[in-house]
Amino acid sequence: MSGFDWPGLMRAGMQGLRLEPERFWALTPAELAMMLGHGGGRAPMTRAGLETLEAAFPDHRKETGDE
Q1: What are the pLDDT digits (tens) for 10-57?
Q2: Distance between CA 21 and CA 3 in Å, rounded?
Q3: How far apart, in whole angstroms, are the C-alpha atoms of residue 21 and residue 26?
Q4: What would the DSSP string read from start to end of 34-55?
Q5: H-helix or E-strand containing 65?
Q6: By CB neighbour count within 10 A (0-12 exposed, 13-18 middle, 19+ buried), where does 13 fall?
Q7: Among candidates 3, 2, 1, 37, which has minimal Cα distance to 17?
Q8: Residue 2 confidence (pLDDT)
């Protein structure tokens, strides 16, 4: 047994989302979950996250004197 509620997923996909069977079976589990409103993705970046990113990838080049 796979651990998936196939009858429930099929009902949600084909009745709730009105997907045709071919479209339903072509989806990955992640795509189906997203369409059903689960797993909304990552949380928005915080200020601290932005500052860490800016420190790792500054907008200016270091002066080397070669230019």
Answers
A1: 999 999 999 999 999 999 988 998 898 887 667 788 999 999 999 999
A2: 21
A3: 8
A4: HHTT----SPPPPHHHHHHHHH
A5: none
A6: buried
A7: 37
A8: 67
**Contact present, 36 and 12 (Cβ < 8 Å):** yes
40 Rama class: left (phi>0) / alpha (psi -120 to 50) / beta: alpha
The per-residue pLDDT for 1 is 53
Contact 27, 13 (CB under 8 A): yes
Q: Radius of gyration (Cα) for the chain, nearest Å? A: 22
Rounded distance between C-alpha atoms, residue 15 and residue 1, angstroms: 24
1: tokens are 């047994």
